[in-house]
Design goal:
This protein is mainly α. It folds into two domains: 51 residues, Up-down Bundle (AhpD-like); 78 residues, AhpD-like, CATH 1.20.1290.10. Helix content is 73%, strand content 0%. It is built from eight helices and no strands. It is globular.
């Protein structure tokens, strides 16, 4: 293991560990792309996530906005909604971030993201939300 990989693993642990959703994505592809997880750990977590300048909660809100805009990234949305909660973003903050994507990403992508958020909240026994 190299320094970038170790730094990435440390950042993932700080973010609440490798979530089940994140692990499923890599495990599903391990037989055809075994280096993909290493690339993600080194680059995304060891290089980008480990940068200073944003606290973890703010960083996760930015990531949620990008993922919502991309669409079709449900496993990643689930993983990063979980990480946002682990970073101290309250459920209402996650909901508001998703709603903020509405004028830019559109109803289908926001509804999909909201459905995933609801599932994550339910799994964590956070429902009903007290607004």
């Amino acid at each position: 293991m190299n320094e970038r990989y170790e730094r990435g693993l440390a950042r993932q642990r700080e973010m609440g560990g490798a979530t089940a959703a994140r692990a499923r994505v890599y495990d599903t592809l391990a037989d055809i792309a075994p280096d993909l997880q290493r690339f993600a750990v080194e680059f995304a977590y060891g290089d980008v996530h480990a940068r200073s300048g944003l606290d973890m909660g703010s960083r996760e809100l930015v990531i949620l906005g990008v993922l919502i805009g991309l669409g079709g990234v449900e496993p990643q949305l689930e993983a990063h909604i979980t990480t946002a909660l682990n970073a101290g973003v309250p459920p209402t903050g996650v909901i508001e971030a998703i709603i903020q994507a509405l004028p830019y990403a559109g109803f289908p992508r926001v509804l999909s993201a909201m459905t995933i958020a609801r599932r994550v909240f339910a799994d964590r026994k956070l429902l009903p939300l007290n607004n």
